[in-house]
């Protein structure tokens, strides 16, 4: 049986901000990804999607963990995605997981975190 939980929050549009003579990507509003949870043979998969950012050559980084704003990935080392979707696979621990996304420009400058979305893993 496929169980899908949809959590929707506002999605971000990002813009480039000038800071010390360089452009730093930044989420423009209080927004973040949406998430769905799907069972798999090796745990639960969480599929994240968000609106693409209208800026050239940006990539995304996904952060997640079991505490709000307390992620398993250190700052600057989120899971990389070239598109506006990412699947976190094999979550086996029951409980609540939190997810947020950043944008990264070609020079490696990373935006602040989007707003968070959480999902409960049974």
Class inferred from helices and paired strands:
mainly beta
Main sheet: strand order: 6-5-8-9
Which CATH-level-2 architecture?
Answer: Sandwich
Total domain modules: 1
Report low-confidence residues grouped into runs of 5 or more. Answer: 1-30
Q: Average pLDDT value?
A: 75
The overall strand count is 9
Biggest sheet: strands, sense, closure? Answer: 4 strands, antiparallel
CATH superfamily: Immunoglobulins
Helix content: under 10%
SS field, number of helical segments: 0
CATH class: Mainly Beta
Order of helices and strands: EEEEEEEEE
Question: Over all CA atoms, what is the radius of gyration?
Answer: 15 Å
Shape: globular
Give the end-to-end Cα distance, rounded to a whole number of Å.
14 Å
Q: In short, what is this structure?
A:
The chain is mostly beta strands.
Descriptive overview:
There is one protein chain. With about 120 residues, the protein is mainly beta. The protein has a single domain, classed as Immunoglobulin-like (Sandwich), CATH 2.60.40. Helices cover about 0% and strands about 50% of the residues. It has no helices and nine strands. The strands form three sheets. A four-stranded antiparallel sheet has the order 6-5-8-9, with no helix packed on it. A three-stranded antiparallel sheet has the order 3-4-7, with no helix packed on it.
Per-chain topology:
Blueprint: E1 14-19, E2 22-27, E3 34-40, E4 43-49, E5 59-65, E6 79-81, E7 85-91, E8 95-104, E9 117-121
Antiparallel strand pairs: 1-2, 3-4, 4-7, 5-6, 5-8, 8-9
